[in-house]
């Protein structure tokens, strides 16, 4: 069909209207790539799918696509063997897997009411095993969960125990020096990833330790007492070990996802087409 004919049909405006009802980037791309069909069989099939999707929408929501994102950058990273996905990217893959599994099962249940659309749903790969391997490893806020590996859980438990010891030790130091007015405020804070206490500049010699900063007024030093030096050192080492284990976990999860890259591409394509079909 010529450009003039498309303009006469106001085809671009029609695509914009349909695109507003698509829930996912893949669905909107499917709308953008829409061109008039010339094959009678394809036209008949598309009309059947549209009619079935309309009927399914009347019956109730069969599929939801609003949690899907643009997976192009994630797939590009998965092509490079040395790269690991970030926690948020793994969460986005998890949402893709959840959507694929839920949609495949929902369409299988309505095969009598919507046989042509259900046939499209059969293209969706079975990703339940991969989903189970990812589920619960990353918290909604993007933090790797303690139980993502036994080693990470053990290290974080050690960090909590050591942090409590540090607080107790620093608390006792604050109590000992509170009467001497050497302490600016009876608070424990962080400087350079180390727990410190605020000491008045003029009383610096009363408390041996390492200075990690000065207040904006210059009247207060943030000091790490010598008796907590080794505890802070050990805490830093544990945090480094925890970060190393987190990277190991992310690499492991990424490797599992990478093995199913082509299935993920198929899932995005199929879900995008279904999103587009329901939008119509």
What this model shows, in words?
With 280 residues, the protein is an alpha+beta fold. The protein has helices at residues 3-8, 11-19, 25-32, 40-59, 72-79, 87-109, 115-121, 128-134, 150-177, 229-258, 261-279, and strands at 189-191, 194-200, 209-214, 220-225. A 4-stranded antiparallel sheet has the order 1-2-4-3. Strand 1 (189-191) and strand 2 form a beta hairpin. Helix 9 (150-177) packs antiparallel against helix 10. The chain is elongated and about 90 Å long.
Topology:
Blueprint: H1 3-8, H2 11-19, H3 25-32, H4 40-59, H5 72-79, H6 87-109, H7 115-121, H8 128-134, H9 150-177, E1 189-191, E2 194-200, E3 209-214, E4 220-225, H10 229-258, H11 261-279
Antiparallel strand pairs: 1-2, 2-4, 3-4
The largest sheet is: 4 strands, antiparallel
- Kindly state the number of beta strands: 4
Helix content: 55-70%
The residue ranges in which pLDDT falls below 50 over 5 or more consecutive positions are: none
> N-to-C SSE series?
HHHHHHHHHEEEEHH
Main-sheet strand order equals 1-2-4-3
Strand content: 5-15%
Number of helices: 11
Cα(first) to Cα(last) distance is 21 Å
From the alpha-carbon coordinates, what is the Rg to the nearest angstrom? 29 Å
How much is the average pLDDT?
90
Report a brief summary of the structure.
The protein is α+β, with helices and mostly antiparallel strands and 280 residues long.
Features:
alpha+beta; 4 strands; 8% strand
